[in-house]
Amino acid sequence: MAIFRDLNPIEHDRSVEDRRRHRQLVEKSIKKNLADIISEESIIGESKNKKIKIPIRGLKEYQFIYGNNSSGVSSGSGNEKRGDKIGSAEKRSGKGNQGAGDQEGEDIYETEVTIEDVINYLFEDLDLPDFDKNKLSEIISQSSKKKSGYQRKGIPPRLAKKRSMVEKIKRRQSMKKTQREEHLEEENTGRVPFIEDDLRYQRIKETKERESNAVVLCIMDVSGSMDQIRKYLARSFFFLLHQFIKIKYFDVEIIFIAHSTTAMEVSEKEFFHKGESGGTYISSGYKKALEIIEQRYSPEKWNIYAFHVSDGENWEQDNNEAVKYAKALCSLCNLFAFAEVMPSPYYKGSLIKIFSDEIKADNYTVVSIVNKEDLWPSLKKILKKEYEAG
Amino acid sequence: MKYDLSQIQGWSEKIEIIAHRAGLDYYPQEFELVNYEDMLSYEAYIGMPSRYPHWSFGKSYEKLKTLYQYNLTGLPYEMVINSDPCIAYLMKDNTLLLQILTIAHVYGHNDFFKNNRLFTEETEAEYTLEMFKSHARTIKSFINDPSIGYEKVERILDAAHALKLQTPRVAGEKKRSQEDLKKSLMEDYYQKASQRSILEPYREEMPPDINKIPLQPEEDLLLFIIKYGKLEDWENSILEIVRSETRYFIPQIETKVMNEGWASFWHYEILKELDLPSALYLEFIKRHNEVVRPITGQLNPYYLGFEMIKDLMRVHGKEKIFEVRACERDESFLRRYLTQELCQKLNLFEYVKKENEYFVENVPDDDGWKSIRNTLCKFVGMSGVPLIQATDFSAKDGTLTLEHVFDGRELEKTYAEQTLKYIADIWKRKVVLKTKINNTEQQILAITGDI
After folding, report:
1. Residue A164: what pLDDT?
2. Best residue of B379, B388, B421 to probe chain A, by most A CBs closer than 10 Å
3. Helices (H), B23-164
4. How much is the pTM?
5. A164 lies in the same domain as A240
6. How many separate domains does chain A show?
7. Residue A366 domain-assigned?
């Protein structure tokens, strides 16, 4: 005779610890791979929900398993013929034995995170004191005045003529109605004049708007010395900064400025793919940036961020100009950062040194990126600056 | 529950009477009714009420939960463990009919556990629960030991899990002693050296190196590492724990098709005899068909096993199916009893992968059905796990050489590389794996500290 036990739910969920540990390992693995993710994905300008595949190391339960060239048996409809194509590797789930079917499901939930997730992890990794990204987006900028309803008192310029007229008509109609009800002879009242009670004024509400506009000026040196690897680093750098700024503001525009000895505003594609040759006048890039700010992005209305990436080579006679314009940019921008990527060993006059000596503005920062591992600490440095600045 | 316990008990009694009359021979049966969350937990821990802590169980819990949440897989009806008394979990949320069907199904498994050769030879059902409990206790004691701690234990467990299926795969195999092996190697040599044919040119026979480790290729990798590795005692005892738990699970891996087929066959037979009220009967037919339905593009072991046992019963009678359930495992079962007619009836076909696309390779006609059967045999049970043997332990620098016994199927390279890192991590010296990829010999290497 079988024994039956009606068990009460187990009070202590015993899987809690193992689940916690699992999640911890997942996050650890993602964070460990962040440097790779941010420097390898060409994701600038992509939508927020793009899934990034991240190989999560410690989480696969590695064993010796069979790989690619395997065959298998499965049930079908009975109409299969030799040589029929039955699907491609990406779509197929089961492979006849119990092991293979599971793996794909595993991949789905383990290896894909959205850019938003990545950014969250980045924030976490930043480890800033009291850092709350939601707070950032509540910065109040200018207030605007909007009409919102009517009121009885007001100043003459806000007199709502139409509405006052309506009030007058209403009053006249109700007067007539009362007369009818009281069986009074309808007096020909003639013209009913406006009285004080009829007058209505616009109500004006002051709304405080959240700071909403920001423009990111990506300035890059595209002279001959900026090769693909440097551009790659630059691209990751710009992309990530853009992501952070997007969190803070609703509407972010990006401007790409490419410069060698002269500067040009270019499209994103040209920015990253067009190669140029020749020397470098860094000042030309800054000048262009100042021009654009002056024409389109008034600092009163826009939050301006300027990031400049260069390999640090500049014609010496341009240095003074460059410093001058950099200072001008500092005075207009919320944040201005200069990143030197993989400085050439042959070039001695380090711009970084000149810049840091000359420019003392609070919202100015310089970083040096030698390889992709430096990307992350550099970003941290810049974002800390941004945080301190408010 | 829209029914009470006594109702289930009533049906269970009737089921047991029919099962007994049909000749099923089972351990005493115990059922535990649990709710959905606890069922998930039991499933993640493969039914055991206590197991050692490891993140892989947490992962499996999350995965199951996700699968159920998105309805990617049906909820489990039951969970049954091979123990004496046999313990099965029933989920409270299930309908009365599902409980009845499950109870009958469980008696099928129970009989299989008690009688199949693999289970009787490889597992000790009366100690199952105690074994898992004591393993959990041991590992927890290492975790609580201030000189060891969670992370060190986890590291060994990670490596042990990577290797857990690299164990002897033949049930009831006896190991020859080292002395015995040395003796027979020397005998072989003397025989070869003395019985040279005079017609062949003289070739000096090299005496065997009887100090070589291992004398013969060793497929029990965990055992090999325990024996020749440089691990501490507590580390070795973790490897031993994982090794012996695998031994408990291997019969289940090796008999998935038969075991499910057998249980499905019996729940079907028993419920037909139960005089179910017609509403329940209709639900029974519906549920049964769900369980044993073919899944296009996959192979449902319930379906394959059920149809095969049914066919055996029809052709050879009851005595035969009882004999088969006692002696066979999936591979031999399929090789012997999967006929061309069955392949046709089940619409089986063989596929191959060519450059990321799958093509039908064989259909069950006169030319193709044997290939279908043979391929299937290559993937069931432990045949689906690549065979890796330890072939050399260098006396000079301690390098461990492993060889993949190549049968035409390639190893998944990333997995092989990562697994090798785990081995190097506990071997603490260099590890080399010889295998074949794209028809060329390849060596994969790992040194300690790679992880």
Report:
1. 92
2. B379
3. 36-44, 55-69, 96-115, 117-122, 128-144, 150-163
4. 0.69
5. no
6. 3
7. yes
